[in-house]
Write a sequence for this structure.
C-alpha cells in the first residue's frame, strides 16, 4: 500500500479517485487497508469473480454469530436499523435471499418493467418541460431526484403527500454504508430506519385491510412474507430504487460536460442513448465500493484472506481496468463492448437494472430533446460520501 493514495475520507480523492485506482491495480491484486481492516480488490476479473463466489457473503450471520466471527456485537442502539436492513433481500444470503428475491422479482421482470416506459417517459417530459421553461436550475433536485422517486413510489403505492419524506429517510440511512461512519451518522441512520419502518408498517396494514393496485398491497397478500420482511423489502426498494439512479444522472451529465465532443456526438445521434447510459455508468459509477465477508478462507493471487475478514470490491476501479475495457479512461458514448460491473454480479445482481436503464434513457433523452443549449453554471461539488458517490447539485442554464 506504500505510496498508493487510497484515501476515501479525503474530498480530493472522492472527486478524482481514478489515478489512485490505476496505481492500486498496477501495484498488486490485493492490498490490506489498515484504517478499515479490509482487503482492497481493484481489478475487474477479481471483483467479478468474488461477487459470484459463495465462500463470501453480504452477511455472515447465516453461518456464524458475531462472537464466532471475532466481531463485537452491534451496539443496542443500532437494533432498529439492523432489524430493517437484515429483513430485506440485499443483506441476507440463501436460502432466505432466494425466497425473498423470488417473491419480489415477479414485479421486476423485463416485461413488467417495459410496461412502465410510457409512464416514465411522461414523468420525465413533465419534469424537463418545467425545468426548461424556467431556464434551468439544479438538475439534481428538479429532475434527477423526482423522476425515480415518483416511479418507485407509484409502483409501491406510497401516497403523493408522503413522498417528500422518502428522500431524507433514504439519504440518512445511506450514511451508515460509508466507511467507518461517525457516531452522529449512525444515530441519524438508526432514527431514519426506525421512522421509515414505522411508516411502512402502518401503510402495509392499511393495504392489507383495503388492497389497492400496487406492490405493497401485492406483497401484503403473500403469506410467506413476514411483516418485518415486507417492511425491509419496501425500504430497500424505495432506497435502492432511486439513490443510485439520481447519482448516475448527476454524475453522467457532469461527465458529458467534461467531454463536450461526446455530448455533441450524443446530441447528433440519439440512437446512441442506450450505449451512452451504460458508458456513463461505467465511467463514473455512483457505487464505488461493495463489501463482502469472507465466510471460508480464500486465496486471491497467492494472498490468503482468512475467514472473518472483509474484502472491499472497488467497482470504480474495476470499471476502468485496461484488461477489460479498451482505452478505459476515455468516455465513449458508442462503446459497444461494455461489461461494466455497476449493477453488480452474482446472486445480488441489481434487481432494478431494467427499470434503472429505462429511467436513465428517458431522462437523458428528454433533456436532449427539449433543450437545444445546456450550459453548466458552475463546477459542481461532490458530496462527502465515497461508497455512494454523487454530486450535491448540478446547476444548469437551459434554452
Ligand atoms: C443506475 C441505478 C442503479 C445502480 C447502479 C444499482 C446498483 C446495484 C448494485 C451494485 C447492487 C448489488 C449490490 C451488491 O451486490 O452488494 C444492487 C442491488 C439491488 N438493487 Fe440496484 N441499482 C440501481 C437501481 C435500482 C433500482 C431502480 C431498483 C429498484 C427499483 C434497484 C433495486 C435493487 C435491489 C432490490 C437490489 C438487491 C438485490 C439482491 O440482493 O438480490 N436498484 N443494485
Amino acid at each position: 500500500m506504500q505510496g498508493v493514495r487510497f484515501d476515501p475520507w479525503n474530498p480530493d480523492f472522492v472527486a478524482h479517485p481514478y489515478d489512485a485506482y490505476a496505481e492500486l491495480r498496477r501495484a498488486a491484486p490485493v492490498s490490506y487497508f489498515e484504517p478499515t481492516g479490509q482487503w482492497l480488490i481493484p481489478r475487474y476479473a477479481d471483483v467479478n469473480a468474488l461477487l459470484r463466489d459463495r465462500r463470501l457473503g453480504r452477511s455472515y450471520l447465516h453461518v456464524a454469530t458475531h462472537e464466532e466471527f471475532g466481531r463485537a456485537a452491534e451496539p443496542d442502539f443500532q437494533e432498529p436499523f439492523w432489524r430493517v436492513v437484515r429483513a430485506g433481500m440485499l443483506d441476507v444470503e440463501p436460502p432466505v435471499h432466494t425466497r425473498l428475491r423470488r417473491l419480489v422479482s415477479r414485479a421486476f421482470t423485463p416485461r413488467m418493467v417495459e410496461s412502465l416506459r410510457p409512464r416514465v417517459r411522461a414523468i420525465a417530459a413533465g419534469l424537463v418541460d418545467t425545468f426548461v421553461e424556467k431556464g434551468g436550475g439544479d438538475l439534481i433536485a428538479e429532475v434527477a431526484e423526482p423522476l425515480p422517486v415518483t416511479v418507485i413510489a407509484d409502483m409501491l403505492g406510497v401516497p403523493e403527500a408522503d413522498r417528500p419524506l422518502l428522500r431524507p429517510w433514504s439519504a440518512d440511512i445511506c450514511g451508515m454504508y460509508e466507511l467507518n461512519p461517525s457516531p452522529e451518522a449512525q444515530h441519524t441512520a438508526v432514527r431514519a430506519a426506525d421512522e421509515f419502518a414505522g411508516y411502512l408498517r402502518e401503510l402495509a396494514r392499511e393495504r392489507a385491510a383495503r388492497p389497492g393496485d400496487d406492490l405493497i398491497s401485492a406483497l401484503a397478500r403473500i403469506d410467506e412474507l413476514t411483516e418485518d420482511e415486507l417492511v425491509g423489502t419496501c425500504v430497500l426498494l424505495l432506497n435502492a430504487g432511486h439513490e443510485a439512479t439520481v447519482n448516475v444522472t448527476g454524475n453522467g451529465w457532469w461527465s458529458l460536460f467534461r467531454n463536450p465532443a461526446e455530448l455533441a456526438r450524443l446530441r447528433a445521434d440519439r440512437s446512441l442513448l442506450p450505449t451512452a447510459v451504460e458508458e456513463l455508468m461505467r465511467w463514473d459509477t455512483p457505487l464505488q465500493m461493495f463489501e463482502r465477508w469472507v465466510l471460508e478462507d480464500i486465496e486471491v493471487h497467492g494472498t490468503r484472506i482468512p475467514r472473518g475478514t472483509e474484502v472491499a470490491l472497488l467497482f470504480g476501479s474495476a470499471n476502468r481496468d485496461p484488461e477489460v475495457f479498451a482505452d478505459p479512461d476515455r468516455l465513449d458514448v458508442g462503446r459497444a463492448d461494455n461489461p461494466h460491473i455497476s449493477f453488480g454480479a452474482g446472486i445480488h445482481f441489481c434487481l432494478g437494472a431494467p427499470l434503472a436503464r429505462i429511467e436513465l434513457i428517458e431522462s437523458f433523452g428528454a433533456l436532449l430533446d427539449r433543450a437545444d443549449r445546456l450550459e453548466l453554471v458552475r463546477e459542481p461539488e461532490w458530496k462527502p460520501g465515497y461508497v455512494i458517490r454523487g454530486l450535491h447539485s448540478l446547476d444548469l442554464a437551459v434554452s
User: Anything to note?
Assistant: Residues 36 and 180 are 7 Å apart (CA to CA). The first helix runs from residue 11 to 15. The radius of gyration is 21 Å.
